[in-house]
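#dry-run=false #mode=assembly
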Amino acid sequence: MADPFIQPRTVRELSDCILDTQYDCILPVGGKTKSALTNSPIDQRRRAMVSSTALQGVLDYQPSDFTITVRAGTTVREVQDVLEGKGQFLPFDPPMVDRGSTIGGMVATGWNGSCRMKWGGIRDFILAIEFVDGTGKVVRGGAAVVKNSAGYDLPKLFVGSCGRLGYLTAVSLKVFPKPKSCFTVAFSAPTAAAVVEAMTKMSRTCTDVIAMDWVDKLLWVRWHGSEHRGQQIRDALVTMLSLRSVAFLSGEEDTAWWRNRSHPEMPHQDASLIKVTCTRNAIAVLEDYCNRSGIDRVYCHAGNSCLLTMRGRERDDELDATFHQLGCQGIVLMSQAPCREFGIAPSVRDFRTRIARGLDPTSRFS
Amino acid sequence: MQTLVPKQVEIDSAFIRSLSDFFPSDRLHTSASQLAVFASDGLTAFSVQPRAIVVPITEQELVQTIQLCCKHAVPFVARGSGTSLSGGSLPHADGIVIALNRMNRILHIDPIDCTAVVQPGAINLAVSRAAEEYGLHFAPDPSSQQVCTIGGNVAFNAGGAHCLKYGMTSNHILGMRVVLGDGTVVVTGSASIESIGPDLTGLIVGSEGTLGVVSEITVRLMPRPESYFTVMLGYASVEEAGDAVSAIIEAGILPAAMEIMDRVSMKAAEAGVGAHYPEGAEAVLIVELDGTRWQVEEERQQLEQVLERTNRIATEIAHSAEERMLIWKGRKSVFSAVGRLSPDFIVQDGVVPRNRLGLALREIAAISQAFGVPVANVFHAGDGNLHPLIMFDGRVAGALERAEQVAARIVQVCIDLGGSITGEHGVGMEKRSFMNAMFDDPSLDLMHRIRMACDPKLIANRDKMFPSADAPAMSMYGLHPLEQAGIVSRE
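#status=ok
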């Protein structure tokens, strides 16, 4: 039987819902764009699926202070539209915007888009949160100013917490001026060694790369600036990396390519889309494993993360062991099955559990 | 709010003997003269003598020490160079200090992933110097970066003049090994800029040592900027300088730093380091752009267009690295130089929304006038982080108390304007009483629960950050010796 679906209209209603003892626990959901996180785990617990989508709206926007505060159920699209009006944007390039992702879901999954390289990820732009904890109380952490070091950094703690620590009701974010134009240079990087060398050279010399993704043996590098400047950079890259040929995208072509990168296809049937924390040092071994196992992948953020598409669950244990060996960690974001993680050390699980018990002593969110 | 009362213990000789099982005599100090060295940190107004000092050189020694403290419920304070400006590394009278200065190695620089793995006692600037050969650096640049440690930067989420563009320490820490308050070692994050699961690294950074002690830190290294453009502008009032900051931000320019100094601060810097400031200016605004040559050139042109529309009365551009350093030397000398104008001063570091800076400054002026206590202003204007210097003479009866009242009123102004009680110094001992004004009871209770999950006996940096027991009495001894030498400053 499907979990009951509840859509509180106020924070008070949400709090009552969290305390409602007819449910053993709560599964927070937003736009359901990261499907694995909103699929109920298979267990005997009575679970209520509680949607944030009625808790929406911009609460405060201070363009001259680079801050915006919104209800957690507000769609990222709506926030982007408001910011666009003042020439500002969310620099971490949140994925799945066109499919209805919410600000709460964005924070809870901590999934940054390709263009997070220059300025930072969600963790670097979240300033304050309001949430309902496992005891039904409304709690606030951080402050809606661009600099603050008072108290524990609860906003950062909630990034990637997957709704297991509390129910987000409002989020304050730092925003930045939006670059007026961008361009992309793409070139062949046929092997792991070649791509690591190119990524490393650029990471050590170029302060202003927005995105650097390795897709289908091509390295796509994005900057902001005029087309004229782009052509100068393209020529400099050809010399620096001894390139024979490069592709150059600007204007709508550039925008469209990166927009598509932000909206990966829902994996078919029994396949899962897995976000992996990676390093450039790990790419060669990971490539070798993926080639042997027939796993599709793209590398993002200059090799700091990877999106794998893996069929079935037969290789779960093997993937877990490989990630442990490489120091990588992974989480299933999109799948028809419930969320699962890979490469998480037992000591990390224990620490997470200790913190979760502090916030949610009666396990309302787990 | 639930008030937690930790068990009070007396350190007995058996506890000290147990410490001597782990530490040779040259790394376990109990004599009065040795303890006195650690009695204060950068906030010299507080002074408390600990019962013992231990100097671990390995993580194992650190774990053994904390486990022993946990077993006997003895409070401990971890300390690096002791440059905390909020009394964050002030010892506990019934506890010990764990001095991390000898866990100071840079364990590994990875030029491929652009990361470094360091021990907590590593000096901030030493990390950048070690990374220099790869064209990289550690971006957080607190003014004490010549002496402050990465462990201390982590504990208090240190900032610096350039955090407007590059963020604070927290934005540059990728992973850590942490010894929690019960002696358990946990690992957070990794060498990647991306992470999975709740951001436990983010929780530890800025927790002021109240959850445990960091034993190893993986930091992100950034490419060194290829080019700088630094300009100093004179204005007839602080408000007009503040308006220029708003105009720059609204034009979509993101400088690396934007700093304002008022007339009193300029006078101090002139007296201190012979810096020169524009005639007739009541405030100067320093703006620095950095990045690639083309990026700086593009932003410089934009900046010039914006500045043309402001009421500047003087423009001084740094045409060389030496001229740039001179501008920054004047700015960074203000705190030590104020010592020439006043024997004592208190610094606050509250934050207000950037668009309310003008209002905050008017409020500070009114408070200064009402109490008859002079206040100099120098601040990170780009991110609304104030640094009012409240000047007084500690030898005059009641002067310290009046200065404290002024400081309290200024912090309250920051809270009332929707800001924060601290931007980069941390709460420490100094601002604990304001936590209740910034956070409500459920929020503080929840922070207590997190603390209890990591440090069930409340021994890690006890009596800091949380509003609880009375603070030790303040007294003024003048400037910190490092401050007098111009090596550190209270910003």
